[in-house]
Each structure stands twice: as structure tokens, then as C-alpha cells.
Specification:
Length: 397
């Protein structure tokens, strides 16, 4: 007999992937340049030349066993040390290599982090709107994911609902800032308030409540603003990072868990991650890619195109009368649909070869997500198509 749980998951495929597959198939019919595909958050900007140069240098100069052999279970020590030094300089926290665990992207980092701080049956809270893959990330660990309803005014935390759901069964809170799908970045006030509540409740319940901070979009920030680093405000924080967006290398699957240096069990937790790897198969990320990101971890691709695209789309949506909160980062925008049923709205958009993602699975019905990590030229061509769609399908809005 095959596993029933995973068979059942075949009936609940990611709506994002389904729409991306539709866009690809439609593109084969009419030319992909004529499909305005805002479905998939796949970074579109070129990799920094320095990263490619580093890869070439390593291949030409490094020992084959260093590049192609198994790395250590916690990650290559020199790589961990370089990342720790970078984080310490940037955020003023005394990270060392002992606080860093190398993982296969932010997903792998979260998979380890949640298993570090929960037992089966424990609860993890997250905040809508949220990335729907958090469901398998958390629930397949044995913990139980529960979703705090959204604050649709500004997509900061709905603290009233959060307090009601923060029971003694909660061992961790999973946050994502700047956020997929809303693009909103939590304010310093929001993060400080979250830390204060968790400190209060940890003392009341007699156990730590950890923050698992999902941070793959940390470098994509708009209006010259810094993204708040949650670890600066709460010592029980596990920062889960990916270089997928900053260096535009999602296919390389490389990231890390950085455990707050002042967390009492930080060094043990990093070693525990090595043991967790034995059970979930996220062992030993590729040595070559670890070495390459170590030498380029303070660089980014040219991320400015995302802000250019955001401004074009945001201004057009506002002019068309959409309710939409201006993103503070990422390459997503999250408008309210022009009818209550966002699925119906997105189906109508498909008739115009506009591929939007309804937000029911993000915990925020009535909204939809646009991923604008596409060429600016295509964004500009999409704007009159969006206007025509709205005027045709919603003439009396």
C-alpha cells in the first residue's frame, strides 16, 4: 500500500503551480510574450557577475574533493564563519559559526527550525496572509499550524486575534517580513510589540515561545527603508534565510538558519539541526554553492527592477480603483478583488491572458496576488490589458 496522506495531497496541488502551468501551456499557443503571467515568484534579474566569477574561480582553482565531496553535516565551517561575520557586522549581534546551520534554502531552514523547537502536537502560529506551503512545512513535522486572521487595513499583525490564539500549547510563531503575498514589511513597532507579548506569555506559561523568522525577501526593500531584523528585538529567534532572491539563484537551493547568539540553547540547536537532517534528508547542501555564497554573501543582484515594477503596477491599480496596500518589499502586490469571490475574479482575468493568484489559500479570501518579477517592458505592456479587463468585466464598479 502506498502512503495515503501523500496520495490525498495530489488533490490539493498548489494553485500557484497550477496557474503557472496554465500560463506555460497558454504561452505555447499564443506566445509566452502575450501571456501576462503574474503567478510564480521566480526571481527574474540576472545573477551578479561576481557570483558567476566566483563559481568559475572555484571550479578552476579549488580541489575537486572540496567542491564535489560531501560537506560537513552542519555546513562548511569556513562558510558558516563568513556568514556569521556578515550578520554580526550588519545587525550588531555576536554571531559565530556555532550559531549558523547551512540548509537547502529557506524551506529547508524552516524544516529544521520548527523541529528544533516543537514536539508533535505543539502549535505554531502564523499570520494571514501567509505562504500556503507553511501548511506542509509545519504540519508534516508533527506540529500543528494555526493561522491568525489578517489585519487587512495595513497587513501588520492582528494583535487582538493573536492574543486570543496564543495559548500555552504554542511553542513558536512563524513570521515572514517582508511578506509573501502582501509585500508588506513589519514595522519596528510591530516587531517590538510581538516580542513584548511573547516575553510576557513565555513567563506566564513557563516555557519559551520562539520566533521562526522566514526572511528570503530581506534584501528587497523599497523607498530606501531598512527591513526590521526580528532577532534584534527577541533573543529566542531563529532566522531562516535563503540566497534565492538576494543573489537571484533560486535553483541553487542554499540558505541557513541563524540562531540568536543569546538564546541559551543556540549552539546545541545548531548541532541538533544536523541530527534533524538525518531524519528529513536535507543533508549536506552542495559544497560548491556553499563556497560561492560565502564569498558573495554581502552582495545582491540588481534588485531595483522590482521597485520599478511595483510602482508601475501600484499606481495603475490605484487609478483603477483597487484597494491595495503599498508593498514595502518583495516582488508581490496584494490587491482586493473587484468582487467578493477572488477565484471568479481571477478566472475572468484569464480570459484576457492575465494570470493572477486568488488568495483563498493564503488565508485572505477576496484578495489576489500578483508576482511582478518579470521584465519591466512586459509590465508596461500589461497595464493597458489590466485596464481593458477591468473596464470590460466590471463596467459598473
Amino acid at each position: 500500500m502506498i502512503n495515503r496522506k501523500y496520495r490525498e495531497m495530489l488533490n490539493g496541488k498548489s494553485v500557484i503551480r497550477q496557474l503557472s502551468e496554465f500560463a506555460t501551456a497558454r504561452g505555447a499557443e499564443i506566445g509566452y510574450e502575450n501571456v501576462f503571467d503574474f503567478s510564480l515568484g521566480n526571481p527574474s534579474v540576472p545573477v551578479p557577475q561576481e557570483f558567476n566569477d566566483t563559481m568559475i574561480r572555484l571550479i578552476n582553482e579549488a580541489a575537486p574533493t572540496d567542491l564535489h565531496g560531501y560537506s560537513q553535516s552542519l555546513g562548511i565551517p569556513a562558510v558558516r564563519a563568513k556568514i556569521a561575520t556578515s550578520l554580526s557586522k550588519r545587525f550588531g549581534l555576536p554571531y559565530t559559526a556555532d550559531h549558523i546551520f547551512m540548509a537547502s534554502g529557506a524551506a529547508g531552514a524552516i524544516a529544521h527550525a520548527v523541529r528544533c523547537v516543537t514536539e508533535p502536537g505543539d502549535e505554531v502560529l502564523t499570520f494571514a496572509p501567509y505562504f500556503p506551503e507553511y501548511n506542509p512545512y509545519i504540519n508534516h513535522s508533527g506540529a500543528v499550524l494555526k493561522v491568525v486572521p489578517p489585519n487587512t487595513k495595513d497587513f501588520q499583525i492582528n494583535f487582538e486575534a493573536f492574543r486570543e490564539m496564543l495559548t500555552e500549547k504554542v511553542m513558536a510563531v512563524l513570521i515572514n517580513t517582508p511578506n509573501n503575498p502582501s509585500g508588506v514589511a513589519y514595522s519596528e513597532e510591530t516587531v517590538k510589540k510581538l516580542a513584548e507579548i511573547l516575553t510576557e506569555k513565555s513567563e506566564e506559561y513557563g516555557h519559551e515561545i520562539y520566533i521562526i523568522s522566514d526572511e528570503p525577501y530581506r534584501e528587497i526593500t523599497f523607498d530606501n527603508k531598512e527591513i526590521v531584523y526580528p532577532s534584534k528585538f527577541y533573543k529566542y529567534t531563529l532566522s531562516c534565510y535563503s540566497f534565492s532572491k538576494s543573489l537571484s539563484i533560486p535553483g541553487q537551493r542554499i540558505g541557513y538558519v541563524a540562531i540568536h547568539p543569546e538564546c541559551p540553547d543556540a549552539k546545541d540547536m545548531v548541532v541538533m539541526c544536523g541530527q534533524i537532517s538525518r531524519g528529513i534528508g536535507h543533508n549536506c547542501p552542495t559544497a560548491l554553492i556553499q563556497l560561492a555564497v560565502a564569498d558573495t554573501c554581502d552582495l545582491t543582484a540588481d534588485l531595483s527592477v522590482y521597485e520599478t515594477n511595483m510602482n508601475l503596477i501600484y499606481d495603475e491599480l490605484k487609478d483603477l480603483g483597487f484597494e491595495v496596500v503599498r508593498p514595502g518589499g518583495t516582488f508581490y502586490i496584494f490587491p482586493k478583488a473587484l468582487e467578493e469571490d477572488a477565484k471568479a475574479f481571477c478566472e475572468k482575468a484569464l480570459k484576457h491572458d492575465l494570470v493572477f493568484v486568488p488568495a483563498d489559500s493564503f488565508g485572505c479570501p477576496g484578495y489576489f496576488r500578483m508576482a511582478y518579477c518579470i521584465e519591466t517592458e512586459k509590465v508596461k505592456r500589461a497595464l493597458p490589458v489590466i485596464r481593458k479587463f477591468v473596464e470590460t468585466e466590471y463596467p459598473n464598479r
